[in-house]
Amino acid sequence: MMRAEAEITWEIEAFLVFEMGILFKQMGLILGLFESSWAGWTGSSISAVQSLQNIAFLFFFLGFW
């Protein structure tokens, strides 16, 4: 019984991590609409969109792993 519960818990955690990846990806897409103005405001070489996409990739990878 404990093994089945542990497996279900692991699957739920993997699903939540995957969903967080989707959330970060959507945030990146939304910020992508404002990327040109965002780069103008911050003047940084790496945009917030690139940062969010990197985070999204990390969560997708952890969710599938």
From TrEMBL:
Its source organism is Manihot esculenta (Cassava)
This protein's UniProt keywords:
Membrane, Transmembrane, Transmembrane helix
- According to UniProt, the name of this protein is Uncharacterized protein
Q: Where are the transmembrane segments?
A: 12-34
